[in-house]
Amino acid sequence: MKTLDRHGRFLVRLTLNGIPEEGFAEPRMLLADFLRHEIGATGTHVGCEHGICGACTIRVDGKATRACLVLAVQVDGAAIETVEGLSEPDGSFGPLQQAFHENFALQCGFCTPGFMMSLSEFLEINPDPTANEIKVALSGNICRCTGYHEIVNASLDAAKALRRRASQTS
Amino acid sequence: MKPAPFDYVQPDSVDEAVEVLAQYGDDARVIAGGQSLMPMLNMRLVRPHVLVDISRLPALSSTVDEDGVLAVGAAVTQGTLAAWPNLGMTLPLLAQALPYVGHFQTRNRGTVCGSLCHADPSSELPLCLALLGGEMDLHSSRGVRTIAAENFQRGVLTTAKAPDELAVRVRFPKAPAGDSFAFREFCHRHGDFAVVAIAARRSGTAISLAVGGVADRPEVCHWNSLPDDSVEDALNDLAWVLGGNDDIHATARHRRQLVRHLGCQVIDATRPDDGTE
Amino acid sequence: MPDFSIPEEIRPEARHVGRRMLRIEDRTLLRGAGAFVDDAPVKKGTLHAAFVRSPHAHAEIVSIDVTEALAMPGVFAVVTGEEMAEQTDPMIVGFENPIDYYGLAVGKVRYVGEPVVVVAATDRYKAEDAADLIAVAYNVLPATIDPIEASEPDAPKLHWRSDSNCVSKRHFVHGEPGKVFAETENTIAMTIRYPRNSITPMETYAIIAEANGESGGFDVLSNFQGPFSVHTVMALALRIRTAALRHRSPRNSGGSFGSKLVIFPYIVVMCVLARKAQRPVKWIEDRLEHLSASSVAPNRITKIEAAYTNDGIVKALRLTHWDDHGAYLRAPMPAPIYRMHGVSTNGYAIRHLEVTNHIVVTNKCPTGAVRGFGGPQLYFAVERIMQRISVLTGQDQLDVMRKNLIDENQFPYRTIAGALLDSGDYQKTIDETIKAGGLAQLKERQVKARKEGHLYGIGYASCVEPSQSNMGYISTLKTGLERERAGPKDGAVASVTVSVDALGSVNVIGDSVPQGQGHQTALAQIVADQLGLDTEDIVVSLDTDTAKDGWSIAAGNYSCRFAPASASAAHQAAVRVRQKMARIAASRLNVAVEDIAFTEGKIHAVNNPDNAIPFYRVGGLAHWSPSSLPDDVEPGIRETSMWNAPELTPTTANDEINTSLAYGFGFDFCGVEIDASTGIVNVDKYVSAHDCGTVLNPGLAEGQIRGSWASAYGATFLEEFCYDADGAFRSGTFAEYLVPTAADLPDLTLVHPTPHPSPYTRLGAKGIAEGNQYSTPVCIANAVADALGIDDVQLPLKPAKVLEWLAPEEPPPSSNAILGSAARLEPATLGQPTISGSDEMQMPATPAQIWDMLLDPNRLARIVPGCEKLEASGDKGFTGTVILGVGPVKGRFDARIDLIDLEKPHKATLVGSAHGALGASRGTGAFELIGNDGGTLVRYSYSVELSGKVVAVGGRMIRGAAKQLIDRFMHALVQQASRDDGPRDPSGGLAGRLKRLVRSDR
Fold it and tell me: Is the ipTM reported for this complex over the cut 0.90?
């Protein structure tokens, strides 16, 4: 049985976008805070801390997850993916980023990492979604700037690009 | 908006988990997916002395297709259950209702048993359990007991589970051949807690309705037969009996109207096919 | 793709302006490499702040005990309101008023969520731990939340120095409204209650503050958005020279929609805290703080009256507003109502107008800017009355609107209240919109739907869209005499600096403080056009630093300032750079300055492109070889434009004011279908068109329209900050304050009408970001009025409300008997704070025995749920500690119970109050003990009022929770009376009724 005292700070190791990282966390430290302030990966944003706005959505072992609703100590050993890992190896935009860029699918950009991380899992599960399916999948992410229309268009474009890529590599 | 301090325990077995619960009782909280608990921790509405994380217990991570029953372990997520092969055949009501439980991102982590134990009067899974009439297995250092669905949820955020007990699994009875189910809810936005949620089961001439969001817990009403021309009156009386409360999202009256409206819809939706297929 | 292209004759030289250029900002934002405040590295030792906030709407602060918090390891400083009052001056507002506002409550609290104490600790978690240890004792006062009731003489007064909660009242008469109202054939009056909402940006307030020993002032990094006139307010409050308050804005800000204007009181508080802690202090507002206590648009009650002819020509308008600003006025409040003063008649040629503005304080969150800034409230009233007049005159609403709109040949048009409407052709915009948007087809749809028995309505709305505020308009709230004393206020200066370095690289800085609108991209387009470069050649930096940048009081991001003002300043600065470089080049190329052209990185003779000098060479000369420059040309290339428009004149003696510089025009129509069974309103089609003059970048412009539309849709259907009648706040989470998601929004059809560029802005551009805030709520409300044939439509359009409009009567139950004791539960209504009910219970004990239990602290302690200790206190009173809650939600409360109206052993009333970290409650329970054969029949009734955190975040379940606690109390009473430990089904009554229901004959 692993027992962590409230006053202690404990080593948490994980991989962040494939790279091993580690830091220390009190038991109560939220994963979002751990990523941003312990690891220094500030691309993941915190918007509500009660699981509704979706700004802090990341992937934990492949699953899109609210980083404000998980404790850092719970993900010791997990594979974490964040917005910082969406670019191509050469640093150019990946398909999601490119589609968001071309569609004006962001304005202030604060919610955008959460949208893209939700989509990155959703488009794996459903590579050829309808606009309505995208809207339902994104209903757990709030954006106050764009009115979502361009985000949905970007999602459709990204799905197309990802399908093209999948057919090329297979 | 950060949690108050707590000790964190990750037991290696159910026995270890219930040992901690026996020691701390109401000062311990069990966390599995944490999708209901974490917001309350962040808001400091809940301040446990110790948090018992059962999310990685292998013993609780399985879903077992037993004889006539689907037994879902306490660490099984809503997303995992939704993807269970043939769920639409074995538990058509859950297959219909699960997509309305939060969002796919919260279903990725939120557990079935966690939602049941959280006992929100508006949430979908307690409603389904109430209608299906399953059972919960509760373990404690005092022993093991099984509690019937109808006795599990007692009121707002309150269940029959004692503080030293761990909900280990829920057992949903599989749909008997010939029974049909339907689920509808009204919420202001997709993924919200329902203002009113209704599930129906038709078994021969009998009809059962479970209603969430109106009383302090999902309530079930059962008719041995309900002729078409009585449906409207029956639903109206049901609406009045359940009463409902006003809050900022809806009035009691609107909730009663949704009982009538959605009740009609679910009853219609459970009608057997007319055989043209 | 909509055609947003700009006609060639308008911008012949534009290669970039008007094009759908992709955003420069995306390069970092999409990689998670943005630079928001909370991303900024901080100095070692930076502390984190957390607030103690009021659970009460109105209460005196009896005492504050911070000892325990200060003793906590990691806690460095605590600041209370008293200290703020000692160390700072009240934050000034633009007129004499009785409000002393310090950022922290002094003496009393005036709304739920008001900051009372702030604490700095080594991290946010610890700071919140420390805040929990601070004990504040309150004496609760009656609250007032309705702006009209609050203005009554007997209403509870919020501010000690005030005679009335109506802190400003102004009456304006333009034309001869009294005479015209008396003479015109018809008059009509309506009352509008516009709700409180906000647009809740995804990034909340964020501040890092540090005392600066050199200047004696402070260095602050925050997402403050301007106007920078408020910089003065902060410096004056802090009692420092304005120059000693160095404020920096980061590169990125996560949206604002106005809310980040009123972050400034928090900046003042953080400065004081940092000075006391002798360390930098960082505060990131959390979402609960944001929803309860940041900033909202004022809710408003408007009584609107119109005088109109039989054929629907409106001759005069009378507007009486009660603008509800919550507990304090914070600069530039009460600006929204005055910002729209010039366009009180919207786009209609109405020449007689009477306006009365009541500025009222109530026990609610203070107000601030919200996208639309006074427009939604105003136009809702004006456009609703146009719809009503069309019904009353038997005409189509659109026909009535068109009869009253300003004619194309009247531009520029001076409204009766002083606005100078710059350009437009409203009739043409409408023609183009109804054609491209398919109004004829929509009307056919309506006919068909109605034939099929559906409730289908069509709505219209138009709006004049003001942009770039006249900094003088707020002075309109002063009398002419007061204005004369204070000196003239007018104009709105925008600043952009363009510089070219020694290698020809172009740097642009500006004061527009963007929050996601894409200003960097648009400015790069404007400057690139002037200098014959590509946008890739331009670096635009819009993070700001008051110590180093060019800025003036109007700097910031609000009221659609960018397209008219910042774009003009950028254009002017770039033109100056161009002129200077042309002079240098002309001297080198031996041609006249006027014959110089800039093309693709070259400066050349216009008629001989080969006679050219590279752009970068001219930059090099200006920096490396001042001696080679023409005699009167200064070295270096750096031009700052401080641009102002002469049309922004001060308020006249007759209170006429050109409130803004440019005025676009929007026109919407929509079709809605209402579900008769549930009251759900479905928007079947929505068409929107905006003439905003020159479009700088269609991708950016369309984003502003769609974004505004989405938030306006939220305001129409979902968003409202709810308060109970006692001031308890109800909308404390994103599960209570509902904002639209991707799945909620219907399709929006955009029509792009012929643009009518502004003659008063350098590029002809007008604002585009706010139009749908004005038009959409009332367009949909007009459609609902049309569908239901009703006149009173109030927002938000929650189905529960619509159901009341379409079916006033609820079908009764088949018999009252089925309700059982439920019939005695008081039906609750929205906005009523009280949870009340009554019931009775048989107890196996005599009245005297039960009486003794209630009066014995030891036995009462066993009955009161969660009672830890209870001691007699005073006459027939008890104090103690209780742990109250349901399920896992529990908190420790300090409680007091008094027994009054004692009539031994028959009647007693318990009056209780409790407060703790979860909130506060007050309640009464009246008991009647009636002896009978089996013991005693206990009749009881109760009422409970709750406020604070638990109500703000858990209102959905609060009634059920309270009932559960009362059940537990009664159950314990029975147990005490009977020593019966048997379980009791708390919903046994309901279960029984459900069974009876089914047994009843079907």
Answer: yes
